[in-house]
Amino acid sequence: MERKGSLMTYRPDIKVLDATLRDGGLVNCFRFTDEFVKKLYLANLKAGVDYMEFGYKASTDIFKEEDFGPWKFCKEEDLRRIVGDNDTDMKIAVMADVGRCNLERDLLPKSESVIDMVRIATYITTMPAAIEMIEYCHSLGYETSCNIMAVSKTNTADLEIALEMLSKSSVDVIYLVDSYGSIFPEQVQQLTKLYLSFAEKCDKKIGIHAHNNQQLAFANTIEACSMGASFLDATIGSLGRGAGNCAMELLLGFLKNPKYNITHVLRFYEDYILKLREEGLVWGYDIAYLLTGKMNLHPSSAIQFTNEGRTDYADFYHRIFDMEC
Fold first, then answer.
1. 33-42 tens-digit pLDDT
2. What is the largest CA-CA distance in the chain?
């Protein structure tokens, strides 16, 4: 399979999705001010971003509303408070985790909602439940994606079965998700080829959601793109859980489509992302995240390590080495 496009041209099939609120919400429990959310929405509009993910459709039966900001739940009234009827070309997305939502209760028909896409997040072991959710959202009129998490922990045989199942479903986009930031570009190349071998025969698109534990989120994103992935996730300032994600400012600086305008992203970064850092919010590359990425481990131990202000990296490395063995 040859690379698609070149460094001097652009592919009109590429869609950029801003995940700043959703992945960034994992850093501050989704407690963003309305001003922050509105300015981010406007910045994405001006920058030409194709989709903006506002957060989760989490169940209030599982998560207490008082413990989180509104973007953990993305109620229709909260979305409309920011976007009105969203009479724009940019589409609104939300994420729903398998086993952590109640879509039959909390999701309106598309004709009554400003949401355009529901992104179903699943592990390989819960694929039947994910497909059931995909079909339900599709029946309500939504675009859907399936984000297969922790693909670095999945064996090829199981992944191929899951991709075959998804190829027969109504899903629109199948996402390669490097949850632990442990994958290298050569692996991304091979995985993207594998995903496309199932998706293209059924006219489905492939997406990439990368984490920056080994400072490879941008490299992995553009590698997947060069092999044919169409949906590219990014966050402004890499704001996201742990080591963060592919930086929007890097991605828009790389893409050649004249519809994308990096200036508005940079202004939002100046006015709002820097302020979050000044207020003490912590995210982004750190050696602790490098080590969990290297060991292909969930970053929870590194998040705790970082939040405690620790710098005993060698001891941390040997402790998580024992977790892997």
1. 999 999 999 9
2. 55
